[in-house]
Amino acid sequence: MHISICFTPQDYLRQNFRDDHIAVVVDVLRASSSIIAAMANGCRQIVPVATLEDAQTRRRDYADALLAGERQAFPIPGFNLGNSPFEYSRTVVADKTIIMTTTNGTVALKAAAEAVNVYIGAFVNAAALCSKLAETKHDLVLLCAGTQGRFSLEDALCTGLIADRLSSNAKLSDTALAARAMYNDFCCGDFVKRIMESSHAAYLSKSGFADDVAFCLKTDIFEIVPEFSDGVITA
Ligand code: MLT
Questions:
Q1: CATH superfamily of the domain spanning 2-234
Q2: What does pTM read for this prediction?
């Protein structure tokens, strides 16, 4: 297996990867983590959409769906859920369809849609994800959602962890080698401390979402690996 990492969706689209690769979309803070929490709590499916208007339009196809997402990290007026993983409890999401729009996470998912499989990854499901990917014969592209076209430290470090865990059985691209080195050498065993210095973690904490940040930086707490296929995320 060959592992590449794209630090933004724009980087991924520019490279025109062949469509027989597997893509893993990583938006640690917070879309990937919230999607994984929702699926672990029995959500039936999540339909990611780019805009608020798309969300309202898609609701016509799913009459009972919950609308979810954020802008500037805050819940969208009139929507049922924001983007905090704590909102996606079993009581709220079990057997539900959720239509979700977030600033970066759902954009990255749409960018990856042509890959042979598109999985959702984060620290919270890293072990389950790596077990699923360990035996694949396909090349792997780890796609960081980033922040509006810019590098995000938390996504890069999560892909570094994934590359590190898969590296005994894989050839790493230069970006994967760099992310792995960032995870191992820059973090020196304490990636949480490094991520707390990042701009999005600081912004979320300042905005009242410090508990979300702490939750999203827990490692290997969910066994579930959601997959995005035909426009819908399922477990
Ligand atoms: C996003 O998709 O941009 C993020 O998940 C933003 C957030 O922290 O809510």
A1: ComB-like (3.90.1560.10)
A2: 0.97
